[in-house]
């Protein structure tokens, strides 16, 4: 998720960092990243409200409290590397402490509130964390030099100690923290040059992996506070529907069941363990009221969005004179592309453990927005926010699903009815059928070519539900959803272009939501697809045709040049096989993929190999870059081949992985990733491959079959030749 335009401020370094004594003794470096909450600070008469800390105690232990939560992307390895690099310690010497729920103190610096998403963790913290590490190191060195009566530049830091090579003296960081906390911050904070990095850019083992392998790692679904019971939940199968009645007797007859609880649109069975809760829930005869959505279907929604897409919409971007350019174009191609609703299918289904008391409330879960979880619990319980404590845990897959707190609200409503901690767990089926969804989009595109077959005009009319209008209304401006129109003309330089947005909401109860890669995932599929249509029409080479359109992006050109070499693009393939190219510039990263596919006479698509080249700037941990490209490619390929949430009679038709298919291991392609060595500041990465894979595969399918697919998921029936 990166739905919000990054912001910057003119905050000075001395307003950014602060050194002080930690509670109980030690050195505390507090900082804003940079602080987007200056108004709140001013309201506190100039008080300093930091949103992250580096703390060193008397034993020399280093603690880093950070805002981003670990959900598989490697945050708990990359963040300490930034501190450790400048502090001259090893990764093994830094302990991660997750930030408490607090929008004011722990705002994501690029997004303005406490959130993990948008591939922002590394870009947002790249400079601030290194500067915090440098400040701590310089203060510790200065404290040692002062004690020894020598110049600071005669000392050096190494593995948690300050050394004086000339005399052989050394002091551990823990011995220096009290003195360091009393010193003024350095006026300047010189940072290492990339050539001097010891940790950054060096492959490192994930610090969170051992406990995930040995079972010690705690996810939200693993917590067991004392006295806890478990609840299985069922929501009204019709989206937006409600509960009419339920007889609890059949569930209460199941051994281990304690209670049957209800809300306005759900029933929950409370038991000693999940098996009994599920069995009790299955025994119930529940009367639901489907309401206005009882007849809603995918076919109906398709006709409605088609009609809406013919409207002109709000202007999101305009350059040059599109109408004049189209009027003099020698060729014009028009196309409609569509992408379906998608659920997130996190490995760990959504869950939340809640303990509501008269004067306090505790939440145990994994969430990308802890402050939002805190706020909704406070609202529903009537407690002040300071009485609500969020215990955030490792997340077993976020992908944008846990940017919403609907499941938290449901859990709190149920837990209010008991006096013990209650873990509310959604089954896989409930999680799929009541997931927030990537929006269904139906888009019109056109391109005009000149006599040399170069594009002189580009239009893209985006039609679909608005995530921002629901999730962050302040950023839905001028009737344009900024996320929905991302990448609507790609990274290419078209001399004349126009992008419009038509807001068309699905029926009430269907919640448009961020999905890994967000607006880029829909528009890159369409832009790269239409551009490939042009290239095939004019019989050009997909690499060569793109080069003139990317002269303003030399990094993109380098990515393409390396990809052409590594993918064996110019090597012929046998009939029935094809290669397809896709390029993106998103989240500050340039990347491209070539997919090789085989299409059988029955229309079945087998993706044989995917070659990726990525320039994400400086790679903090190159191993994580490769892992992200691999995992994201599989995630995106699963959606391209199988992802489709459909509705009949107001109900989602998919449930478990039998009907909402995942890519199986025998279906996985060979994945080859090449990382461009760069000294640019890091970009985001976790969502990049999900943007690329669908258009690369669809373009490869055209190369193999001559058939152009303009909608997802890929339908073998459209490719069948026998």
Automatic annotation (TrEMBL):
Aldehyde oxidase/xanthine dehydrogenase a/b hammerhead domain: residues covered: 214-292
InterPro entries: Ald_Oxase/Xan_DH_a/b, AldOxase/xan_DH_MoCoBD1, AldOxase/xan_DH_MoCoBD2, AldOxase/xan_DH_Mopterin-bd_sf, N-heterocyclic_Hydroxylase, OxRdtase_Mopterin-bd_su_IorB, TAT_signal, TAT_signal_bac_arc
Pfam families (UniProt xref): MoCoBD_1, MoCoBD_2
PROSITE patterns cross-referenced by the UniProt entry: TAT
Entry keyword annotation includes Signal: yes
Keywords in alphabetical order: Signal
Keyword Repeat (UniProt): no
GO molecular function ontology, one term from the record: oxidoreductase activity
PANTHER family for the chain: ALDEHYDE DEHYDROGENASE
Protein name: Aldehyde dehydrogenase
């Amino acid at each position: 998720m990166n739905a919000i335009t990054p912001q910057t401020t003119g905050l000075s370094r001395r307003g950014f960092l602060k050194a002080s004594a930690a509670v109980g003794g030690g050195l505390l470096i507090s900082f804003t990243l940079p602080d987007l909450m200056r108004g709140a600070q001013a309201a506190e008469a100039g008080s300093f409200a930091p949103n992250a800390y580096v703390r060193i105690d008397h034993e020399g232990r280093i603690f880093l409290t950070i805002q981003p939560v670990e959900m598989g992307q490697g945050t708990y390895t990359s963040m300490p590397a930034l501190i450790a690099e400048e502090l001259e310690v090893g990764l093994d010497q830094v302990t991660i402490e997750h930030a408490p729920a607090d929008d004011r103190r722990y705002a994501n610096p690029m997004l303005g509130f406490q959130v993990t998403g948008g591939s922002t963790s590394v870009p947002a913290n790249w400079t601030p964390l290194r500067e915090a590490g440098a400040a701590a190191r310089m203060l510790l060195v200065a404290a040692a030099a002062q004690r020894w009566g020598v110049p600071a530049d005669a000392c050096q830091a190494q593995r948690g100690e300050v050394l004086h090579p000339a005399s052989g003296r050394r002091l551990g960081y823990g011995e220096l923290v009290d003195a360091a906390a009393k010193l003024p911050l350095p006026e300047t904070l010189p940072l290492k040059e990339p050539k001097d990095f010891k940790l950054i850019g060096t492959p490192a083992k994930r610090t969170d992996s051992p406990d995930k392998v040995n079972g010690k790692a705690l996810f939200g679904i693993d917590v067991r506070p004392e006295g806890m019971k478990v609840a299985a939940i069922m929501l009204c199968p019709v989206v937006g529907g409600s509960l009419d009645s339920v007889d609890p007797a059949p569930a209460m007859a199941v051994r281990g069941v304690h209670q049957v609880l209800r809300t306005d649109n759900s029933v929950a069975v409370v038991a000693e363990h999940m098996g009994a809760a599920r069995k009790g829930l299955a025994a119930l005869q529940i009367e639901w009221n489907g309401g206005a959505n009882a007849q809603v279907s995918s076919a109906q929604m398709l006709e409605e969005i088609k009609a809406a897409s013919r409207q002109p919409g709000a202007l999101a971007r305009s350059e040059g004179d599109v109408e004049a350019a189209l009027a003099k174009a020698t060729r014009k191609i028009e196309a409609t592309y569509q992408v379906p609703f998608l659920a997130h299918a996190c490995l760990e289904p959504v869950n939340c453990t809640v303990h509501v008391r008269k004067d306090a409330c505790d939440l145990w879960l994994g969430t990308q927005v802890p402050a939002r979880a805190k706020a909704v619990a406070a609202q529903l319980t009537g407690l002040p926010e300071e009485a609500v404590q969020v215990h955030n845990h490792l997340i077993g897959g976020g992908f944008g699903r846990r940017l919403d707190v609907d499941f938290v609200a449901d859990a709190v409503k149920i837990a209010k009815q008991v006096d013990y901690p209650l873990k509310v767990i959604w089954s896989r089926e409930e999680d799929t059928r009541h997931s927030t969804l990537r929006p269904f989009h139906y888009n019109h595109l056109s391109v005009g070519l000149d006599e040399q077959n170069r594009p002189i005009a580009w239009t893209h009319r985006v039609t679909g539900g608005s995530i921002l209008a629901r999730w962050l209304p302040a950023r839905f401006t001028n009737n344009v959803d900024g996320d929905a129109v991302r990448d609507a003309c790609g990274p290419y330089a078209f001399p004349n272009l126009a992008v419009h947005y038509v807001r068309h909401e699905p029926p009430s109860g269907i919640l448009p939501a961020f999905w890994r890669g967000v607006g880029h995932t829909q528009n890159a599929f369409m832009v790269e697809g239409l551009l490939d249509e042009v290239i095939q029409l004019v019989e050009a080479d997909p690499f060569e045709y793109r080069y003139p359109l990317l002269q303003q992006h030399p990094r993109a050109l380098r990515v393409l040049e390396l990809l052409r070499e590594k993918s064996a693009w110019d090597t012929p393939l046998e009939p029935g096989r094809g290669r397809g190219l896709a390029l993106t510039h998103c989240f500050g990263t340039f990347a491209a993929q070539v997919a090789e596919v085989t299409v059988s006479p029955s229309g079945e698509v087998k993706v044989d190999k995917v070659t990726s080249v990525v320039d994400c700037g400086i790679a903090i941990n190159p191993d994580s870059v490769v892992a992200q490209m691999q995992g994201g490619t599989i995630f995106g390929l699963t959606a391209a081949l199988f992802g489709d949430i459909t509705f009949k009679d107001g109900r989602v038709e998919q449930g478990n992985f039998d009907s909402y298919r995942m890519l199986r291991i025998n279906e996985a392609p060979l994945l080859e990733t090449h990382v461009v060595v760069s000294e640019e500041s890091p970009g985001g990465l976790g969502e990049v491959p999900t943007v690329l894979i669908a258009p690369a595969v669809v373009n490869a399918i055209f190369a193999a079959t001559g058939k152009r697919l303009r909608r997802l998921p890929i339908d073998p029936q459209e490719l069948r030749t026998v």
